[in-house]
Amino acid sequence: MKQSQLFTKTRKEAPADETSKNAELLTRGGFIHKEMAGVYSFLPLGLRVINKVENIIREEMDKIGGTEMRTSVLQNKEVWEKSGRWDDEVVDNWFKTKLKNGGDVGLSFTNEEAYSNILKQYVSSYKDLPIYPYDFKSIFRNETRSKSGIMRGREFYWKALYSFSKNEEEHNAFYEKAKVAYQNIFKRAGIGHLTYVTFASGGTFSKFSHEFQTITSVGEDTVYLDEASNVAINEEVYNDEVIAELKLKKENLIEKKAIEVGNIFSLGTKFSAPFDLKYKDENGEEKLVIMGSYGIGLGRLMGTVVEVLSDDKGIVWPESIAPFTIHLLALGDDEVVMKEANKVYESLSQAGVEVLFDDRSGMSAGEKFSDADLLGMPYRAVVSPRSIKEGGIELKKRTEEKGKIVSVDELLTLFKPI
Ligand code: ATP
Ligand code: MG
User: Fold this and answer.
1) Which CATH number does the domain housing residue 362 bear?
2) Distance 280 CA to ligand 1 centre (A)
3) Is 218 inside a domain boundary?
4) What is the pTM for the complete model shown?
């Protein structure tokens, strides 16, 4: 994409009302637009990141047997009354409204009831199970805290998968697979080295749920981390008994701030019971379905990447979720440079390499460099009178100080997708 066609512009100063680094940098870079506290629109560059995150998650969910669908945002009061979660005394962050011709509706704040209600129509025999439907969807929560930019939205985009299994054993086997899939997602998104499987509060049917917590001083959660065994305990369940168990040693556990980037949960029959979601086993005996839920916030993940990987010049995107792989800069408005840069852009684009081409005229090298640093593409390729004299294009990683000169052919060999 040519930058002259990108309507968003970078800005030097962060908006005064943003205190988090992710909102500051993403706003300055033109990735997001704040509609109100906790509500953001995703601009072209931001949407490209979200789409890449979405594809990574989709691939990992499909690998473990997930089937994608889409549940509605407007939710029926009667359905949620079955589980008792319509009541504001029970759930205090619903956005609700009334239909003109009577009746209440709520905007999805989670999905268990919607899935249980739909699956009730399709599950009747042991032959129908196990199943793992999931969706990507906008979720609405009337959050009181909303100072963490896109990491805590009142409207946010998430993936939620629900598992429907015949028994505990089948459920547990899938739960472990989901854990690995989640670790793969965070690894692929570039924050695997800072993200720990964390024991967190469970519910009626399981002692623990598991969170995926990314260690950073700006995190809202407190966890106790054991680096040797690669696990952490959320402070909400941290006590001597839990530690002894889990066979951990109390010194080894270091208090850290962290961001919950994902959460997986064993639900047992908590939702299948109120929805009467049963199947007939091989002997014709009726049994309740065993459920699990597996959530992940895409904006929260994107915001976390910005929080933990950026430097004092701007964002540093991992290649896997960067809006573009290469930021190509034409320096100086001289005709030879523009011609050569255009040639490089055309060759790379034709080869399927994702390039953002800074073809804007009337801008200094310094301005283009600082924009490239702020926007954070993994590679910067510069065409300038000097690079041409030296035989090509100056290629540099976002994280490197100095680049090297390469020819167009070398560039193509380095980046052409296999
Ligand atoms: P928190 O404790 O941070 O409020 P939660 O435990 O209520 O989160 P879940 O219901 O477990 O959140 O949702 C699953 C995932 O959705 C979370 O792990 C997180 O990645 C994401 N998420 C939750 N709330 C938000 C939010 N307000 N904005 C963005 N992402 C969110
Ligand atoms: Mg959670």
Assistant:
1) 3.40.50.800
2) 35
3) yes
4) 0.97
